[in-house]
């Protein structure tokens, strides 16, 4: 590729081509903002390309109204700036969005919105990144689209027959729209549990499909964050022993969840999270509604959707007014990152934590640790430190492309 100037000489019709001095960051969620802030702290400019019209679009457009951080705020801070002291222990959705907007403003981060990356490919020493409007070139590419870029919508036979609405939780806002309805919730993770709980508050009748095993832990134990307890214990005890302690305490506080149709995996919650990314459910009230019978647990998988409801694997049919798919999210990296074997076909780094943040040829990733915002913060710091060390050594490249540089501040 050489430079954008050379590309234009080879293809005169390609005029929207710019060389970027610093890294190109794909994604303006918490991961992209954290990376940009840490780079700025080292005096390194960057360009963020965001497909949506705002920062943190997943939080702003695809989350339900009652959402709060599942972990205490000290475990969810982005680097270099903490949450306001007057924020509660578990900030609300609007508070977290406000925090990220303040964060972006504080570090003068100004993403280029409505720029969906169609392809990114390493060629002749540079990363060539194309959106629908422009082509950008840089020595460094930071993939910050994260583990939860796109909703996972399963293909269930008969969905086209159903007379009511079928929607993914990314489109669910409140149980108000489902008041007094019989609702099938497919999925029993944190989203499935919280949506079911929210539906109860509007006098709906949720039936939650639990096909697989799931760890349910109390959000707090004896006044302390369960996650905080786990982090403290891991400093002194082996991981498997910490898992045993957590499960013992969870059984004392919550009882035997197997009896409620919520069978626990054989692998402990932290070990399972680290190995597969499957997050344990932190209970915020759904379990008491399951015990009272207001949330019905369905242990049979859905065989097919019918005109008026669903048929399950055991042949039983039930009628529902609406269906909500709490089936999670996935990475979208394979759809736009080309010619790169750093990622699996599922869009996750092949290199396990803690070394998953750096690839070859100036490729970096942030937000793919399976450790939430705590992992994001760690990634961003490491990436910025690494790029800053190389920043001064690339003066020749920057000066040779002066006539085609985007000035980023």
From TrEMBL:
GO molecular function: flavin adenine dinucleotide binding; indole-3-pyruvate monooxygenase activity
Cofactor annotation: FAD
Catalytic activity, as annotated: indole-3-pyruvate + NADPH + O2 + H(+) = (indol-3-yl)acetate + CO2 + NADP(+) + H2O
EC number(s) from the headed UniProt entry: 1.14.13.168
Gene Ontology, cellular component aspect: endoplasmic reticulum membrane
InterPro entries listed in its UniProt record: Auxin_biosynth/cation_transpt, FAD/NAD-bd_sf
Example GO biological process: auxin biosynthetic process
Protein's pathway: Plant hormone metabolism; auxin biosynthesis
Keywords: Auxin biosynthesis, FAD, Flavoprotein, Monooxygenase, NADP, Oxidoreductase
One Pfam short name: Pyr_redox_3
Residue intervals passing through the bilayer: none
Family in the record: Belongs to the FMO family.
Name by which UniProt lists this protein: indole-3-pyruvate monooxygenase
Source organism (scientific name): Prunus armeniaca (Apricot)
């Amino acid at each position: 590729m050489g430079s954008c100037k050379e590309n234009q000489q080879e293809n005169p019709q390609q005029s929207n081509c710019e060389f970027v001095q610093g890294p190109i960051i794909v994604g303006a969620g918490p991961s992209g903002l954290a990376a940009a802030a840490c780079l700025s702290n080292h005096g390194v400019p960057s360009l963020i390309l965001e497909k949506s019209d705002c920062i943190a679009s997943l939080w702003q457009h695809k989350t339900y109204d009652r959402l709060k951080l599942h972990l205490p705020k000290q475990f969810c801070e982005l680097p270099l700036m903490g949450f306001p002291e007057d924020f509660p222990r578990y900030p609300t959705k609007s508070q977290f969005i406000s925090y990220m907007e303040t964060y972006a403003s504080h570090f003068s981060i100004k993403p280029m919105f409505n720029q969906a990356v169609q392809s990114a490919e390493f060629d002749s020493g540079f990363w060539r990144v194309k959106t629908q409007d422009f082509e950008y070139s840089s020595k460094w590419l930071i993939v910050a689209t994260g583990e939860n870029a796109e909703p996972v919508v399963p293909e269930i036979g008969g969905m086209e027959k159903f007379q009511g609405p079928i929607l993914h939780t990314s489109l669910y806002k409140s149980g108000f729209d489902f008041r007094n309805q019989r609702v099938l919730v497919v999925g029993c993770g944190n989203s499935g549990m919280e949506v079911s709980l929210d539906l109860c508050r509007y006098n709906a009748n949720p039936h939650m499909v639990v096909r697989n095993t799931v760890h349910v832990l109390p959000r707090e134990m004896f006044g302390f964050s369960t996650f905080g307890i786990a982090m403290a214990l891991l400093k002194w005890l082996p991981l498997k022993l910490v898992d045993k302690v957590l499960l013992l305490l969870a059984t004392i506080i919550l009882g035997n969840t197997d009896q409620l149709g919520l069978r626990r995996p054989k692998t402990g919650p932290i070990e399972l999270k680290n190995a597969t990314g499957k997050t344990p459910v932190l209970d915020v009230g759904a379990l008491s509604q399951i015990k009272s019978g207001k949330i019905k647990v369905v242990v049979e998988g859905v065989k097919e959707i019918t005109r008026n409801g669903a048929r399950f694997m055991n042949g039983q049919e039930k009628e529902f007014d609406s269906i909500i798919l709490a089936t999670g999210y996935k990475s979208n990296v394979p759809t736009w990152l080309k010619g790169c074997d750093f990622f699996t076909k599922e869009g996750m780094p092949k290199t396990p934590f803690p070394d998953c943040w750096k690839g070859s040829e100036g490729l970096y990733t942030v937000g793919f640790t399976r450790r939430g915002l705590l992992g994001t913060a760690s990634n961003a710091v490491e990436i910025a430190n690494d790029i800053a060390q190389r920043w001064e050594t690339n003066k020749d490249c920057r000066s040779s492309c002066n006539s085609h540089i985007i000035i980023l501040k």
